[in-house]
């Protein structure tokens, strides 16, 4: 069994297994080297670690074996189920239209729903990053989405979190975020004022929208 220690400056230590190797990403290098002692085999500085490897390690630590991509932005846990409808972390109740991917919009603009509406408590529920990535937009986009955060990941994957509470956004453009990190608070900005409280969670791969429920319940796109 080998141990590889890499410098990862943000957040709690991350441990993951890679065959016969235990990889540790941590900001407290001295502490880990003392604990490992003679078992320590390699130290790799932060500059030599690839961002994709760090993101993958963060995902593996929080979600090691179940094959689902990142975490639900409301519950902070892997996966999504529609039922019980209306309960936090599940599909919102179907008032002023249904919230699943591809549902028809009552005002027919756009003609099909392009995200997944995940229920939560208005102005209370923390909204969390699905995976470790880089913020590409954070602010008031106006229009239907209101206050939005967009995050990019390896392999041309992007997630968007819409209708956030006004001025609740905790991240900034170009900031690195970790999986499960709070990025804002569930709100009703944009066109969400008449619907049950929810976050509109959208996912795209290579600039093509995909079903967020399928994404959350499947391995991450490669």
- Please identify which CATH superfamily of the largest domain we are dealing with: Glucose Permease (Domain IIA)
Task: Evaluate the radius of gyration.
Answer: 19 Å
Would you list the SSEs in sequence order as H and E? EEEHEHEEEEEEEEEH
Number-wise, the strands total 13
Number of helices: 3
Structural class: mainly beta
- Mean pLDDT, rounded to whole units? 80
Q: What portion of residues is helical?
A: 10-25%
In CATH, what is the class of the largest domain? Answer: Mainly Beta
Determine the CATH topology of the largest domain: Glucose Permease (Domain IIA)
What is the rounded distance between the termini? Answer: 28 Å
CATH architecture of the largest domain: Distorted Sandwich
Strand fraction: 25-35%
The shape, in one word, is globular
| Parts with pLDDT < 50 across at least 5 consecutive residues | 7-11, 29-65
Q: Sketch the major β-sheet.
A: 7 strands, antiparallel
Number of domains: 2
